[in-house]
Amino acid sequence: MAAAEQTHQDRPLIEVKDVTKFFGPVVALTGVSMTVNAREVHCLLGDNGAGKSTLIKTLSGVYQPSEGEIRVEGAPARFTNPRDALDAGVATVFQDLAMIPLLSITRNFFMGREPAKRKGPFAFIDMKHADAVTREEMKKIGIDIRDPQQAVGTLSGGERQCVAIARAVYFGAKVLILDEPTSALGVAQTSMVLKYVRQVRARGLGVIFITHNVRHAYAVGDRFTILNRGKTMGTFAKSEISLDALQTMMAGDKELQDLAELEGTI
Amino acid sequence: MADVPAAEKTAQSEQILQKTRDERMKRQTRGRKFLQHPEFGALAGVILVFIFFGVTAGDSGMFAPDGVLNWSTVSAQLILIACAAALLMIGGEFDLSVGSMIGFAGMMIAIPMVYFGWSALASTLFAFAGALAVGFLNGWIVVRTRLPSFIVTLASLYILRGLTIALSIVFSNRTIVSGVKEAAGDSIIPALFSGIAFRPLFVWFAEIGVFDKLADGTPAVQGVPAVILWALGLAFIAHVILTRTRVGNWIFAAGGDANAARNVGVPVTRVKIALFMFTAFCATVYATNQIFEFGSAASDRGLLKEFEAIIAAVIGGCLLTGGYGSIVGACFGALIFGVVQMGILFTGVPNDWFRVFLGAMLLTAVLFNNMIRRRVTGER
Ligand SMILES: Nc1ncnc2c1ncn2[C@@H]1O[C@H](COP(=O)(O)OP(=O)(O)OP(=O)(O)O)[C@@H](O)[C@H]1O
Ligand SMILES: [Mg+2]
């Protein structure tokens, strides 16, 4: 058992090997490779249209890679839909949030995996249990909800992100993919989400964290992969690269010159 | 400020966060929560309508036993299709072909029975199978093409109505097929769909003087029409499915945000197709009740019923954009509809005013629902 766990730890949770994705004539990804280990926050950085969302959508079963391979814990994985990926332990919080604002927190939390309670030939949602679990799980991350039946729309953006993440963690995700979880958030809300990402890592999950904001990435990231026009520009450990260097890499040389002319700081 | 230690700073911001969060939660008072139930507006409407007609038509016999029977039967018929429309609307789709489906299903029962000599059971089963197939097709086209269901079912509206008229002329050379009751013989089907339940109970009621007796000694109200039982039964099932089962959660999800729902593994395609099939099923129950009630099928049956169903659902608090609403609300909506339609007859007001009222009611309901929605989603 111990030995098995050992090899488990050594093996990357996810390996992406030379993945290419075409949309008709559009080449969104060309030969992208990266690995994600347990207990690591792997940041995926890149400009608009670099292919970040496309890459994670191929990881989460929304798209299938045109070429290349994805391995989950060493075994080749071919997800035909998000459900397959979820079952393999790859959970994604999409940029366009997978939350339904008009529905209650509980109903959102258990969406697609509602706990059933049998009564004769009928199966009903065990709402009491679901409410209790939701309240409990939200409490763990420091959000005290009085009424789990209140609509998700009444939560703040940061709280909503946290519900989405808590849901993935609760349902046994091994890898958590977050597509720009902080892009729409203010300072306090961002720190709340970043804090929670660290907490998730401490629980032994691997996290892929996608962002434009190098600062946010540097605050939680262990490794950084930079994507540019569908290609990887390399992966760097935090010890190998400074915040400034990362900034420069991400912006690309030409753009940075333009920025220097504008005397802007980002 | 600058010399505050970092740890203390985070603790402070943590406290502030906590405070603001709690304040937000406190706004959720009990009264407000009640207001947020989708059926609240419709319940208020029902009460208002009853008060109004209680005052203006109190002595017209509207609230005598046969008067009650009158408007509750009309309401029940509408409940049948309003519940289906509500589920479908919550699931994010419309079905404009409900009215045509009623006419088509009626013909699917009447023509085989009257012209091919099929039994009532066989032709009724045939009609249900046919309707479910049409419902499936509607749903399948909508989810496959991702076209708005409004357009797809508008096409079905015309195709089904056209087929109903054309086929009835082909087979019977007329647009009304009568003789259904005779063709049914002593089959149980007519009783099942248009019979009257609890007769002995009502005779007894008349004996002890709850109701008046007619001249021939039969009670003024003979029992509960089957359509009322069907409506309540289907409404109950739909309500339980929507609020208590996984499928119900998926219906809300499919209508709230189909993509988000798919991303967490909800079988949106299956849910939507099933909802279209359920709608066709309910339309067929309606049709079966009608043809055995009248003893005939007519190719113009169910005209404009799709709008009445949608109006009842909207008055009942369903959002046109999907993802929100209730069956109880849709039933209230149908009740308002039935009470006003019949109440206007009882008060002797020209029937044209019914439409004016209906339009005004619809507009009020939509405005109200919009407000509720904004409140539920935190005015965002
Ligand atoms: N479904 C699609 N069909 C055609 N082209 C697509 C599709 N999805 C993405 N693309 C293209 O692929 C490229 C990468 O897009 P992607 O959404 O992955 O970028 P991104 O890095 O997530 O950008 P952002 O930071 O703006 O979210 C873009 O040029 C985009 O136009
Ligand atoms: Mg993106």
List keywords for this structure.
heterodimer, A: 266 residues, alpha/beta, Rossmann fold, four-stranded antiparallel beta sheet, 10 helices, 12 strands, 36% helix, B: 380 residues, mainly alpha, ABC transporter involved in vitamin B12 uptake, BtuC, two-stranded antiparallel sheet, 73% helix, globular, disordered N terminus, binds adenosine-5'-triphosphate, binds magnesium ion
Structure, explained:
The complex is a heterodimer of chains A (266) and B (380). Chain A is α/β, with parallel strands linked by helices and 266 residues long. Chain A contains 10 helices and 12 strands. In chain A, a hairpin with a 2-residue loop joins strand 4 and strand 5. In chain A, helix 6 runs parallel beside helix 7. The longest helix of chain A is centred in the C-terminal third of the chain and has 16 residues, at 187-202. The radius of gyration of chain A is 19 Å and the shape is globular. The model of chain A is unreliable at 1-8 (pLDDT under 50). Chain B has 380 residues and is mainly α. Chain B has a single domain (40-370), classed as ABC transporter involved in vitamin B12 uptake, BtuC. Chain B contains 17 helices and 4 strands. In chain B, the strands form 2 sheets. Chain B has a two-stranded antiparallel ribbon. The radius of gyration of chain B is 25 Å and the shape is globular. Residues 1-7 and 12-28 of chain B have low confidence and may be disordered. Chain A binds chain B through residues 60, 62, 81-83, 86, 92, 94, 96-103, 107, 110-114, 116, 122-125, 127, 142-147, 150-151, 153-156, 159, 188, 191-192, and chain B through 10, 13-14, 16-18, 21-22, 24-25, 28, 33, 36, 240, 244-246, 248-250, 252-253, 256-257, 259-266, 319, 323-324, 373, 376-378, 380. Adenosine-5'-triphosphate is lined by residues 23, 26, 28, 46, 48-54 of chain A.
What order do the helices and strands come in, and which of them pair?
The complex is a heterodimer of chains A (266) and B (380).
Chain A: H1 2-10, E1 14-23, E2 26-36, E3 40-46, H2 52-59, E4 67-72, E5 75-76, H3 82-87, E6 90-93, H4 105-109, E7 116-119, E8 122-125, H5 127-140, H6 157-170, E9 175-179, H7 187-202, E10 206-211, H8 214-220, E11 223-228, E12 231-237, H9 243-251, H10 253-261
Parallel strand pairs in A: 3-10, 3-11, 6-9, 9-10
Antiparallel strand pairs in A: 1-2, 1-4, 4-5, 7-8, 11-12
Chain B: H1 6-26, H2 30-35, H3 40-56, H4 65-90, H5 98-115, H6 120-145, H7 149-172, E1 176-178, H8 180-184, H9 189-194, E2 196-197, H10 199-207, E3 224-225, H11 226-244, H12 246-256, H13 258-263, H14 268-294, E4 296-298, H15 305-315, H16 327-347, H17 352-376
Antiparallel strand pairs in B: 1-4, 2-3
